[in-house]
Amino acid sequence: MTPAQPDRARAADDDYPNMPIEPSRLDDGEFPGLELDSPRPEDGAALWRLARDSRALDLNSPYSYLLWCRDYANTSIVARDASAGPVGFITGYSRPEAPRTLLVWQVAVDRGQRGRGLAAAMLDALARRTGDKLGVDVIETTVTPDNTASNRLFASFAERHRAPVTREVLFDAHDFPEAGHEPEVLYRIGPIPVPAVAQQH
């Protein structure tokens, strides 16, 4: 995350009050003891560690995760275990030029919780909440071609919600200062049909 990005994201979020969700328990059959919640500033260090341990995400500064948890709680989500510690998260923001579009920034799940669909459950819940509260009907994210898990996550989200999806290179490899960075492919999913979101309740 660059210094300019929090300012751009804040321009959109200033239009809305911060609206933390009430914690909601996930299906105990699939996710025993887990609940979904808004991130809090005290979660910032845990989110940084989850991103670091993912070995797939670009690791931002610890300070940036603290800011995300404070300023963008209404467009982000965490999964908590019985100890109330985050075991997964999605960070995102409403795009300033298109406030009905949620840009998903990072998705991470603790190694011990992977393989059960927790990332998909968090993404569904975040899309539903931002749709209900902010009128979001388009999801965007960028994924590198070699990130198989993220490509599968967003492709399946589009299919599950019967939403159109387009893909195009947003930032090419030569746009990055360091050598060896993969191009970032923009997924644009939407408009997301309201009935498709509602049936997830």
Please characterize this protein's 3D structure.
Pathway: Amine and polyamine biosynthesis; ectoine biosynthesis; L-ectoine from L-aspartate 4-semialdehyde: step 2/3. Keywords: Acyltransferase, Transferase. Residues 1-38 are annotated as: Disordered. The protein has 201 residues and is an alpha+beta fold. The protein has one domain: Gcn5-related N-acetyltransferase (GNAT) (Aminopeptidase, 3-Layer(aba) Sandwich). 33% of the residues lie in helices and 25% in strands. The protein contains six helices and eight strands. It has helices at residues 4-13, 44-54, 62-71, 118-134, 148-160, 194-198; strands at 24-25, 35-37, 77-80, 86-95, 98-109, 138-143, 165-171, 184-189. It has an eight-stranded mixed beta sheet with strand order 1-2-3-4-5-6-8-7, with helices on both faces. The radius of gyration is 16 Å and the shape is globular. It starts with a helix and ends with a helix. Mean pLDDT is 85; it is low at 1-17 and 196-201.
Write the layout of secondary structure elements.
Elements: H1 4-13, E1 24-25, E2 35-37, H2 44-54, H3 62-71, E3 77-80, E4 86-95, E5 98-109, H4 118-134, E6 138-143, H5 148-160, E7 165-171, E8 184-189, H6 194-198
Parallel strand pairs: 5-6
Antiparallel strand pairs: 1-2, 2-3, 3-4, 4-5, 6-8, 7-8
Helix pairs in contact: 2-3, 4-5
